[in-house]
Amino acid sequence: MAAFDFDESLLVELTEAHGVPGYEDAVREIVRREFEGRVDRVRSDAMGNLVGTIEGAETPAYEVVVAAHMDEIGFMVRHVDDDGFLKLDALGGWDPEVLRSQRVRVHADGEDLLGVIGSIPPHSGGSDDEEREVGDVDVDLGLPADAVEERVSVGDRVSTVQTTEVLGECINGKALDNRVSVFALCELAERLDDPAVTVHLAATVQEEVGLRGAEAIGVDLAPDLALNLDTTVANDVPETEKDEHVTHLGDGAGIKFKDSSVIPNRKVVDRLRAVAAAEDVPVQHEVLPAGGTDTAGFQRSSGATPVGALSVPTRYLHTTTESVHGDDVAAVVDLAAAFLESETGDHDYTL
User: How far apart are the first and last CA of the chain?
Assistant: First the structure.
């Protein structure tokens, strides 16, 4: 088993918890537990965002938000048919091709039910996934139709079921997007010691359905600076061309230069690069052609806010078998901590 520079047990707990957009309760309680005693105060809001605040020792009026979203892609029940099979509505971006033969958990009132998204066996011609959408798949609960009708309701949320395992030098499982960054927030709560400025560690909600939690909390906190932590694409696998890799597992933290939702403040980007060089933290430049992050949610929600972003390179994003490299996770935590510890509130991010 690989020896990581961190205790992966908390990361395993976070990834194996269930928390689709709008229903991040189980994840929020883990983060609340980890924040207690490590930050000056903890509070949540009506959307479910959770914020742990560490008061600034020297310039408390200058406020920095460090954010990571808690939600994972999932589903909601939209129909129960006469035979007891469930139809789903997607919460976040799924490729229907990866859903065949997946176990799921239906979070019904008062109880959870295990189910499976089945597949037609090859003996019968197999399942045709061409032009198939998430709404076309069926969940089989292994129960009579009347029992399903009694126990499941339209609107019940559905998440995938997967264990998290060490895979060589990597950690593999569901919801590493973005529980690996939530893990980083918890590590920062432990490591930050009397920062000069006030730091809000924000575990946000509903990122996968439109950056909604970040936009709301950006208004409520109105920070002077925001740093977002999230995953990014690592397409460094045989079936993709080198110019499509975006990042590579094991090469260090990704410093975001752009995604489809944001172009971070270039002075923040430059300072992240300078801190990485000074602290000897391995980094790589991230230019993501498609996909958005909470970084954009903070950039304009309370006026023009300087933003930056660090990314954990991740293979097989938005599947149930996402993979991150232990060294990259450690690099993101190290760089975020060094960046925050060296923030005095005196840096001019005006362009």
Answer: 47
